[in-house]
Amino acid sequence: MKQVVIDYEQHLIDAGLAESTISKYLNDVEQLLDFADEKTITKNIILDFKDFLTNELGREASTIKSKITSINKFLRFSGNSKFIIKNIKTEVKKIDNIMSQSDFDNIMIEAKNNGTARDVLMLEIFIRTGLRVSELQYFTVESLQQGHILAKNKGEIRKVPISVTLEKLAENFIENQGIESGPIIQNQAGYSLGRNYIYKRIKWLADLAKVKKNKAYPHSIRHLFAINWLKRNGARIKQLADILGHNSLDTTKKYLYIEDSIDDVRETMD
Description:
Elements: H1 2-14, H2 19-36, H3 43-55, H4 61-77, H5 101-114, H6 117-129, H7 141-146, E1 148-153, E2 156-161, H8 164-177, H9 195-208, H10 218-233, H11 237-244, H12 249-253, H13 262-268
Antiparallel strand pairs: 1-2
Helix pairs in contact: 1-2, 2-4, 5-9, 6-8, 6-10
């Protein structure tokens, strides 16, 4: 596949495209190949990748369309036209992939029974902080000592508080794992986990828990965090927006109008 990418780059150069355009096309292709994790490209991988862009990375519809168009060009060049995605929808994205508390609890059970201590803590971090998957790397030993996370996203930095419960869970984890500095959720080499790996790990746990595929994303847990936060703290939209890193309050206000699932409503009646 590496040779195909090299040939594709030369094809783009020969076509007289601008250097910035070529770089954009190649970055999109590399992101797809990284997602495929060296597996043969199939229709399912292409569809899962589009799903990943939409639900996990929170891309705008225009950005998703641009990436898919770019990938389609590569698929045509590489002789994989049969995998081209057609009829790309560009409607405004709605928050419709909400994970219920029951869904999350079932995923957590699978993490404890069939996963690792790292899986369990990773889920605890997402549900107790509302971090984006790309921000998990900033949950470090140093941030634990400071009592807050300095989360960076799109050039902006915000403070995300660490609860006492999460602090204790993380302290026990780093003590057992012998982690002295850097990212707490790390691989064997001591580096933070890649977002594709995190995405696939949660997908695997959700599959074991029989949670619907369209809810099995770290970003769905972020949605659940926001809903739970509003239930505990009332409609303090500005404070929640600051925690989530939303630039627009309109984005945060959407959580005010999300109905509970029937499972969660049943739990409140016990």
